[in-house]
Write a structure and sequence with these properties.
Elements lengths: L3 E6 L5 H10 L12 E3 L5 E6 L4 H6 L5 E5 H7 L4 E5 L5 E8 L14 E4 L2 H11 L4 E4 L15 E6 L3 H5 L2 E10 L1 E5 L5 H22 E9 L3 H6 L8 E4 L5 E9 L3 H10 L3 E7 L6
Parallel strand pairs: 1-3, 1-4, 7-8, 7-9
Antiparallel strand pairs: 2-3, 4-11, 5-11, 6-9, 6-10, 12-14, 12-15, 13-14
The structure holds phosphoribosyl ATP and zinc ion.
Phosphoribosyl ATP binds next to helix 3, strand 9 and helix 5.
Length: 285
């Protein structure tokens, strides 16, 4: 039987989360350090470790069936691949930043200026959308020092905490692109490859769903069960079991992260006690 070939970053910010996701999907990978490729014993998967910049092309060409890469790299490379799933890690944004002393009056302030960036294609498209002419200086690293050494007036670079910009006397002034890691696929996959991808996606979605949800157990007095149950949707509906002490029940359910704190407070107000919250490892609907 064939194997699904996946390209992931060899080392860098996406490596650990990419390998970690596969492992959470129950796919054991041996020798991930300093290797160019490895296979799994318990899932028909072959992993290629590459520079993130090369991943879109490998997937466009079908050398790898799928890949994990940041949307920023994907857009910059402009390769023809299909995005099948956002993965929720590697979040950052591509932003314009100007020296803190500079008065910023919106994108129009870019007119005729020099912009240093490693993302000439995305920045070029942005300037075109804004109808602004400016000079793009492509540099491959340490973009944030360009204004300080007189190489450019502003920069367009990836930002997560903003610490790097701050330390270089720069201020984020416009966001061009929001980015996260995504799973991409080769458009000409065989039927067998697609079936393998479906089973990988099934696992990825179960892992992601589990992360967004918590298992909740609590005790409630029987006369207030109705109120408590109304607050807990559960996967179908909550499980209710009698406690040894008469007049009380134990209620089990699932709550999503977004509504979690608000619901816990409401549950307490509705008479719930001894609330336990437990992480869920996998969640299949
Ligand atoms: O060797 P290879 O080419 O594979 O790796 P790389 O050096 O090109 O990329 P790497 O490992 O640095 O980043 C891989 C991907 O992680 C990027 O393409 C983004 O999709 C994502 N990502 C998420 C980030 C950041 N957050 C990030 N903060 N990539 C880079 N940064 C850098 C940024 O360029 C700047 O220098 O971190 C600095 C800013 O961070 P803050 O926290 O100070 O704002
Ligand atoms: Zn790179």
């Amino acid at each position: 039987m064939g194997k699904l070939k996946i390209a992931v970053q060899k080392s860098g910010r996406l490596h650990d989360d990419s390998v970690g996701l596969l492992q959470e999907c129950g796919i054991d990978l041996r020798n991930v350090k300093d290797r160019l490729r490895t296979e799994s014993d318990d899932f028909p998967l072959e992993v290629f470790f590459l520079r993130d910049d090369d991943i879109p092309q490998y997937v466009e060409d079908g050398v790898a069936d799928v890949g994990i890469v940041g949307e920023n790299v994907l857009q910059e490379k402009g390769r023809t691949v299909e995005v099948v799933q956002a993965l929720g890690f590697g979040k950052c944004r591509l932003s314009l930043a100007a020296p803190r002393s500079e008065v910023w009056e919106g994108p129009a302030s870019l007119r005729g200026r020099r912009i240093a960036t490693s993302y000439p294609r995305i920045v070029g498209a942005y300037l075109q959308r804004q109808g602004i002419e400016a000079e793009i200086h492509e540099i491959s690293g340490s973009v944030e020092i360009a204004p300080g050494i007189g190489l450019a007036d502003v920069v367009a670079d990836l930002v997560s905490s903003g610490g790097t910009l701050f330390m270089n006397g720069l201020r984020e002034v416009e966001t061009i692109l929001q980015s996260q890691a995504v799973l991409i696929r080769y458009q000409g996959m065989t039927a067998e490859g697609q079936a393998l991808l479906e089973s990988l996606l099934f696992r990825i979605r179960a892992v992601k769903r589990a992360k967004r949800n918590k298992y909740v157990l609590l005790n409630a007095p029987n006369e207030r069960l109705g109120e408590v149950i109304a607050l807990l949707p559960g996967m179908k509906s909550p499980t209710v079991l009698p406690l040894a002490e008469s007049g009380w029940s134990s209620v089990h359910s699932v709550l999503s992260e977004e509504e979690f704190w608000e619901r816990i407070e409401q549950l307490k107000t509705a008479g719930a006690q001894g609330i336990l919250v437990i992480p869920i490892e996998k969640m299949v609907l």
